[in-house]
Amino acid sequence: MQDWKYYSKGYVRIRVCAPSPERFLNLCSYHKIQVWNLVYREQAYEMNVTIAGFYRLKGICRKTHSRIKILGKYGLPFFFYRNQKRKAFFVGFFLGFLLLCLLSRHIWNIHVEGNVHNSTQSILKYLEELEVRHGCLKNEVDCAFLAEKLREEFPDFTWVSAKISGSRLILEVQENETYQHEKEEEPGASDFISDKSGIIVSMITRSGTPVKKTGDLCKKGEVLVRGQLDLYNDNKEISGYAYTHADADVYVQHDLEYYHAFPMTYEKPVYTGEKKKGYVFQAGSYYLTLKPKGKWQEFDTVTRLTQLRLTENFKLPVFWGTSVDYAYEKQTFTYTEEEAKARALDKQKALLKTLEEKGVQILGNRVKIGIQKGVCTAKGTLAVVEKAGQQVPVQIPQEPAERNADVDE
Fold first, then answer.
1. Are 276 and 325 in contact (CB under 8 A)?
2. Cα(89)–Cα(92) distance, rounded to whole angstroms?
3. Secondary structure (3-state) at 351
C-alpha cells in the first residue's frame, strides 16, 4: 500500500551532490520531506522523493550549496503526461474497465459438488428451467429459493447450499444413498402369453394360473399363464374368480433361421502416403479452413478440435484444431476360399456371441458355408433356448349390480 501511495502521487529519483550531505538530510527531516531508498554511489547520494517534496528542496539546496540531478520520473502523473496524446489507449482502458464492471455483475461459472447419483448436466438443465444459467445477473439469483427448488426437484438431496462467490455460483449438495424412488403403481390384471413357438424346457410361475407345463409345445400368442384365479367355497366348488398380474419365467427351445451372403470380390482403400495438413476454426455454424488445395479425388479427413472453455461448465461455441487429408486409391481384391469361409465363420461367431450376451443358450448349430457363382453363402438353423413370454392385459368382467327386493311387512 505504501508503494501504491507513492506511485499514485508520483515520485522522482534524484542524485544529490552536497559538501555536507548530513546537513542536507537533517534539513529534509526538519521540513518533513520524505526520502527513501537512500544509497551512496559515486561520491553522491541517490534517493527517492515525492513530487511535492522535490519542489520544497529549492531552499535547502541554496542553504547547503547542493546540486540535484533527476535520474528518473515514476508514477501515474508522469505516465499520463507521457501518454496524453494516446487517446485511443485511454478510451480502450476506460472501455475495458467498464466492460469488467458490467461482466462482474453476471454469473459465469456454476460449480456443483457433492452430487453422485444425479449428474451435473441434469442439475444444470433444471437450473435453466429456473432461468439460472451462465451469464445471468447475480441480483436475479435467489440462493435460498434456488436451494428449496433443488430439494423439491431432487428428493434424494438431503441438504443443499447455494452461494455466490465473485462471478461463481457454488452449489453444494448431499445425497441420501439409501433413497429409493417411489414404487410404481401395481399393474392390473393380465395374461402371460408366449411370443415364440417351440417346446417349453423350463417354466416357473410366480403369479397366476399356469396353463402349460414343462415339455409342452406352445405356439406364438398362446396363453401360458392365466391371470384368473379360481375361488373355492367349503364344498370345494368354484364360487368366484380373482384377477391378478400373471408372471412367470418361461424358457422355450426353438430354431432360428440364419442366412448371410457376400460377394467374393471387394474394394478396399489403399493409402498412398500423401497427406496435407491444415487448420480449422469454428464459431457456431461458421467454419474457416486454412488448407492448401490438393488434386486428390479420394481421401479421408481426420479433424481434431478443441473447444474454448471459460470455466469448468461454461463452454463457448468456438473450436479450433487441425485437419489432415490422407489420399488413397480404391483397389479391387478377391477373397480366397479359406478367407471367405473364415469371414463367414467370424460373422457367425459374432452373432452367437451377441445371442449369448442376451442370455440365449445355443444347443445346436446346423449352418453350412458354401461358395457358388462368386458368392459366399452361410445358411441353416440354430437350435436355441431363450426366455419367452409377455403380459397382455385382460378385461375384468363387472359383477351385476344387486337388486333390492321389496319386503312385505
1. yes
2. 5
3. helix
pLDDT tens, residue by residue, 100-130? 888 888 888 888 888 888 888 888 888 888 8
Grid cell at residue 151: 430439494
pLDDT attached to residue 179: 55
By DSSP bridging, strand 109-113 and strand 168-175 are parallel
Cell (9 digits) for 95? 472501455
Pairing relationship of beta strands 67-74 and 35-41 according to DSSP bridges: unpaired
What tens digit of pLDDT does each residue of 296-347 get?
A: 788 888 999 998 877 766 677 788 999 998 888 888 999 999 999 999 999 9
How big is the CA angle at 50 (ends 49 and 54), to the nearest 5 degrees? 75
Question: Quick one: DSSP state of residue 221?
Answer: T
Print the SS3 string covering 152-187.
HHCCCEEEEEEEEECCEEEEEEEECCCCCCCCCCCC
Contact 227, 208 (CB under 8 A): yes
For strand 315-334 and strand 265-283, is the pairing parallel, antiparallel, or unpaired? antiparallel
3-class DSSP state for residue 90? helix
> Quick one: average pLDDT of 339-359?
91
pTM (global) more than 0.85: no
Amino acid at 8: S
Say how far apart CA 229 and CA 246 lie, in whole Å. Answer: 10
Q: Cell numbers for 390, please give them.
A: 409377455
pLDDT of residue 200: 92
Query: Residue 108 and residue 122: Cα distance in Å, rounded?
Result: 18
